Amino acid sequence: MKKALLLSTLLTAAAAHAQDSTFTLGAGIGAGTRYSGSDEYLVAPVIVADYQAANGFYASTLRGIGFAAGGEQLSASIALGYRGERTEKDTNGFVGRTGSKALKGMGDIKGSATLNVGAEAQLTDVFSVAAHAEIPISRRENGKQFALGVNAKLLDSRADKVAAGVALQFGEANYLQTYYGVDARQAARSGYRAFRPEGGMYGTDVSLSWEHRIDAHWAVTSLLGAQRLTGDAAKSPLVRRKTAPTAAVYAAYTF
């Protein structure tokens, strides 16, 4: 499941403004499609283990390993992350049922280590703008992905924080070919028509998050989102559903 730009920028801002070192442990459940454009769904556990140092360093199952810096008006982060694989067959594992027989003949896309770079600028008390780049440092042929978004704080109280975001998603030609394209060999094996998308905007992501703080240590976070494929990605023969919802909820303890 893809992370919304909203979540990553909220976590980046929190890291940049942190005054003390913290460690958060939590667990929950999430749901999303098996691959971008799929009409099949998976339900998987959400595991939260997040260490945040006062100097900006962090190590997290949600954010990777990196560093965040900045203030109230401008924050930025750089981290090592991981982009998951895509398989051409149904696979049962710890994260649920992944892969899809709908991709038979397309071959597997191996996971890759990534360099994730992000920045957020607070425009008003409510609105901020954010940018994010995901650059593979292994499997570089899989291509780079970018996002530009606007986030809004709908509620910001001691007990509850509610935020919404809209992001435009972009990919270079290699990225779109990897995840939405069909080359001649794949077409011969899979039966899908050959398709070569061009780089550019390929989707819009909307998201809503709600963090309810029970006390000084416990909090419950809920996330709802949806991705709408556009442009060449929406025309891909692999895409069976252009709009896909995502959801997650987890409880976490911070100390």
How would you describe this structure to a colleague?
Helices cover 12% and strands 53% of the residues. The chain is mostly beta strands and 255 residues long. The protein has helices spanning 5-16, 173-180, 184-190, 231-234; strands at 22-33, 41-52, 57-60, 64-70, 74-83, 91-93, 96-98, 112-122, 127-136, 145-156, 160-171, 200-213, 218-229, 243-254. It contains 4 helices and 14 strands. The chain has one domain (5-254): monomeric porin ompg (Porin).
Short structural summary:
This protein is mainly beta and 255 residues long. The chain has helices spanning 5-16, 173-180, 184-190, 231-234, and strands at residues 22-33, 41-52, 57-60, 64-70, 74-83, 91-93, 96-98, 112-122, 127-136, 145-156, 160-171, 200-213, 218-229, 243-254.
Could you give the topology of this structure?
Layout: H1 5-16, E1 22-33, E2 41-52, E3 57-60, E4 64-70, E5 74-83, E6 91-93, E7 96-98, E8 112-122, E9 127-136, E10 145-156, E11 160-171, H2 173-180, H3 184-190, E12 200-213, E13 218-229, H4 231-234, E14 243-254
Antiparallel strand pairs: 1-2, 1-14, 2-3, 3-4, 4-5, 5-8, 6-7, 8-9, 9-10, 10-11, 11-12, 12-13, 13-14
